[in-house]
Amino acid sequence: MTPQQFKQTRKDLKLTQRELAKELGLSEKNGDVYIRKIENGRCEPSGLLIKCFELFIERENKEEKFWNDAFKKLEDQYK
Engineered SS bond to 17: which of 1, 6, 35, 56, CB 3.0-4.6 Å? Predict the structure, then answer.
């Protein structure tokens, strides 16, 4: 994942650097600095961080699908 892809994915998730750092379990004090360095290409993310990020994205996608399906069922039920 390139720094640009990392940053765009974070933005697609509508998260700030600080929010993403918190979701990934990074330090509250410096986690957002680490995310910023990754996005600027000044730091390589660890394999573990990338895996956590991928799992977070997967969880978010599943949650979004769940809610979309639930709202669709409600809409169909009340047509």
Answer: 35
pLDDT tens, residue order, the chain (79 aa): 899 999 999 999 999 999 999 999 999 899 999 999 999 999 999 999 999 999 999 999 898 899 889 989 989 888 7
On whether the pTM is more than 0.90, the answer is no
Tokens of residue 2, six digits: 């390139």
Burial 37-54 (b: 16+ CB within 10 A, else e): bbbeeeeebeeebeebbe
Tokens representing 76?
A: 């169909």
Q: Residue 7: what residue type?
A: K
